[in-house]
Write a structure and sequence with these properties.
Layout: E1 25-27, E2 33-38, H1 40-58, E3 63-69, H2 73-80, E4 87-98, E5 102-109, E6 120-128, H3 132-142, E7 148-157, E8 169-174, E9 179-180, E10 196-199
Parallel strand pairs: 3-4, 3-6, 6-7, 7-8
Antiparallel strand pairs: 1-2, 2-10, 4-5, 9-10
Length: 206
């Protein structure tokens, strides 16, 4: 059976506008072909940069980080290990997709969140696509009395935003492609891939 994970790659600085490097194609255990957009090394470097930006914003002030599940689980675990300020960590469960790629009604479950009254809150999400999920979660969290609410995302997809808000911290800009890996899924699979890859449109439902 072919290996599921991608071996170490030479880091490639990805530009959503112009990428001169031939992308690597990986065939997974189920014969799915994935084009690698961001390698493990690039993701690690990006999270280090994100942690530096968070430290610059909050300094030594206590911070509550809320991961938007399930896509942010790997980002959440990696980021908090790079932060030194007093931290509270919680999660909020959302769901807005049906049939893998079709957006449906947004549902939010905040029962696993800690008390955030008068706290500085950083929302953490895997990807900023149309922006509806992050907007809905931000509105929900603001109703719970925090001192401040900011947001950070691993990925921001070019040309897809349908809302007025933008994340306060963006780790990577990517093209308008359906991506998996490092917490992102397709039909609840591929979250465990250590890189970010895109699926060809022929592998997605019409």
């Amino acid at each position: 059976m072919p290996a599921l994970f991608l071996p170490k790659l030479t880091p490639v600085l990805y530009s959503p506008v112009k990428n001169q490097v031939q992308p690597q194609i990986v065939t997974l255990h189920d014969s799915t072909c994935v084009k690698v957009l961001l390698t493990r090394e690039q993701i690690e470097e990006g999270i280090v940069r994100l942690a530096e930006e968070v430290r610059a914003q909050y300094g030594k002030q206590p911070l509550t980080i809320i991961g938007i599940m399930t896509g942010s689980i790997m980002l959440l675990a990696d980021l908090i290990r790079l932060l030194e300020m007093p931290l509270r960590v919680g999660v909020i469960q959302t769901s807005s997709y049906r049939n893998g790629t079709e957006r449906g009604e947004l549902t939010i479950n905040a029962t696993l969140m800690p008390d955030i009254r008068e706290r500085d809150v950083l929302l953490l999400d895997d990807i900023f696509d149309t922006g509806h999920t992050l907007t809905g979660v931000t509105n929900k969290v603001n109703q719970l009395g925090p001192r401040s609410v900011r947001s950070a995302v691993l990925l921001s997809k070019t040309g897809r935003c349908e809302v007025d808000m933008r994340p306060d911290f963006v780790t990577f800009d990517i093209p308008d492609e359906f991506v998996i890996g490092y917490g992102l899924d397709y039909e609840d699979e591929y979250r465990n891939l250590p890189y970010i890859g895109s699926l060809d449109s022929s592998q997605l439902p019409e």
